[in-house]
Amino acid sequence: MRASLSNNEDNPIVVMDKNRRSLLCFVFPSILVIFAVLGFFEVIALSTFKLGLVIFIILFVILPISYKYSYNFQRSTVFLNFLNVPRSADYIHPAESYNLKGSRNLYVTFGQVKLGTWQILPENLQNINNAGEDFFDKILDDGQNVVIYNHGNGGCRLTEHRIEMYKVLRKFFHVIAYDYRSYGDSSALPPSEQSLVEDCLAVFQWVRNRTKSNVFIWGHSLGTSISTHALLKLQTMNIQMPVGLILESPFNNFKEEVSEFPLAKMFKFLPWFHSTIVQPISENFNFDTDKYICSINIPVMIMHAEDDKVVPYKLGYKLYKEAQKCRIRGQGQLIFHSFSSKGQYGHKYLCRAPEILDKISNFIQLALETKTDKKL
């Protein structure tokens, strides 16, 4: 079950020790030089020019170089697992706290990892009264389709736009929504691409142990790369595969996404932007969706809003074009749907597009027909 861990990304202790030494050797002398040049007492009452100079040096010199040599700093900006968790978060009672009737909280465990998970019944079952744990366990194998939702970075499974999407998905599926390690109430373990892929595989195995129904994988934003990578791993395992992959607001690879990320744009004018930000990120964190998707042997649907400011539309479309080139006919159909900027769906709210219902329904039909054709 546990995938092998890459040397450059999942063995950070040695790297981090080296990074800390390099960081300390650069940052603290730099700060001392600033204070020495300006004069300690003058710093207390800096002129506007001097204050601006100090801020510029800290933001655009010290910060980028600190980023280059700090694996932890990089990881925190990639996964954003410390952001957007409501203080009043209630993971235990999704039905009562988030108006998700017919849902329960549970924990998927493997090894030393615990993943907070919600099982959300299809809309046609949501009003069943007195549904106990045994009922939830058995009903997953009622023949209805199942979807596993892999969220993006930041927040957790109870973030508002994700709950909106669950309510759309339950019109078609049993919904399994979970938090990767370090998110929500899941185990507080360091995240990496490989470890989050392991989490996805564990949740899929949990589902597959309980049902032979058709399973779809849905990924949003960073979750699109995790989903695609996990499917690549699944194809090497002796297990009944998912029948379809849906990618909402994906990027082609993380190297190109880094340059477009809102927080990074303020540094793009710097001559050292590539060497201090883009290069270390691309070396330590891959997320090469445009490579993974080439070997996925099931139908794939990509959806992207034209006004997405977090993962630009052009990156989702670029993924589609690259996939067209590398995928062959027998692997499963590849579909791309764009959503007009007039809808103002941005990065998070394709769930509010009226046309998304037909697109999901049509893709389900396509995926099931493809599965049938492969059996013939």
Based on the model shown, name its key terms.
disordered N terminus; alpha/beta; 2 domains; globular; single chain; 376 residues; Rossmann fold
Outline the structure in words.
The protein is an alpha/beta fold and 376 residues long. It is globular and about 70 Å long. It has helices spanning 7-10, 12-38, 40-44, 48-69, 71-79, 94-98, 133-139, 160-169, 193-208, 222-234, 254-260, 262-265, 273-284, 289-292, 313-326, 356-375, and strands spanning 103-110, 113-120, 146-150, 174-178, 215-220, 244-248, 300-305, 334-339. Strand 3, helix 8 and strand 4 form a beta-alpha-beta unit. The longest helix has 27 residues, at 12-38. The model is unreliable at 1-24 (pLDDT under 50). The chain has two domains: 7-79; 94-375, Rossmann fold.
Number of domains: 2
Helix proportion range:
40-55%
| Silhouette | globular
Question: Distance between termini?
Answer: 31 Å
Write the CATH homologous superfamily of the largest domain.
Alpha/Beta hydrolase fold, catalytic domain
